[in-house]
Amino acid sequence: MGAETAVQTFPALSLDDQRLLLALARETLTAHLSGRGLPDPRVTSAALLVPRACFVTLRRRDSGDLRGCRGERVARRPLVESVIHMTVASAVDDPRFEPVRLHEVPGLRIEISALTPPQPIRPEDVVVGRHGLIIMAGGSAGLLLPQVAVAYGWNREQFLRAVCEKAGLSPEAWRRAGVRLEAFEAEVWGEAES
Questions:
Q1: Which of 100, 113, 107, 114 minimizes the C-alpha distance to 29?
Q2: Cβ(79)–Cβ(112) below 8 Å
Q3: Which helix (H) or strand (E) holds 136?
Q4: How many other CB atoms are found less than 10 A from the CB of residue 176?
């Protein structure tokens, strides 16, 4: 993912696009958890109709603690649909947590990360704060979003070790032959903290 690798570009997400997706994620949480099904948004923004992978992260407003995070690394549907599906998954399908309950929704802060397609990268080319990482070896895989390394204050090697551990691999697995390392970038935005 250096100068020799082209990164797919997407139409820029406007502030209005970002606000719409956050509002849609909140509407999705409320609708799904109250048994009303999923919203059927009518969007015209080209940027929201392009197939794009995303992650949706839910945090408790009072503490900032993680409450759920799910996503996909490969684009399977338009971004607007991906946000709907990953919002539901983050609320009810994160194996680290009990499913979110409807009464919790007002106390949650939503963050969305829209990803570029992953590309192979050499460990020495990883830029903390710019790249998210995916590591794959055998049947194991792990992914960390770019903002995770920044939040923990990790350097490149700590980030590489952490993505290995996320995959259930030894912390030094990134140094081994036969291990596939990929990077992606992300546009990240969320609801205001308060």
A1: 100
A2: no
A3: strand 132-137
A4: 11
What pLDDT, on the 0 to 100 scale, is given for residue 106?
A: 96
Three-state SS at 119: strand
Domains and CATH numbers, the chain: 15-115 (3.30.700.20), 119-184 (3.30.1490.150)
Regions of the chain where pLDDT drops below 50: 1-7
Short-list 81, 72, 90, CA closest to 21: 81
d(CA 46, CA 13): 9
pLDDT of the residue at 158: 98
Total-model pTM: 0.90
Compute φ and ψ for 119, nearest 5 degrees. Answer: -130, 145
C-alpha to C-alpha distance for 101 and 13, rounded to whole angstroms: 30
Please tell me the distance from the alpha carbon of residue 96 to that of residue 174, in angstroms, as a whole number.
Answer: 25
- 48's enclosing H/E stretch is helix 46-49
Instruction: Report the distance separating Cα 55 and Cα 86, nearest Å.
Output: 6
pLDDT in tens, 116-134: 999 999 999 999 999 999 9
Tokens standing for residue 58: 């839910």
Query: What local confidence, expressed as pLDDT, does residue 4 receive?
Result: 40
Backbone phi, psi, residue 20, to 5°: -60, -45
Residue 34 backbone dihedrals phi, psi, to 5 degrees = -100, 5
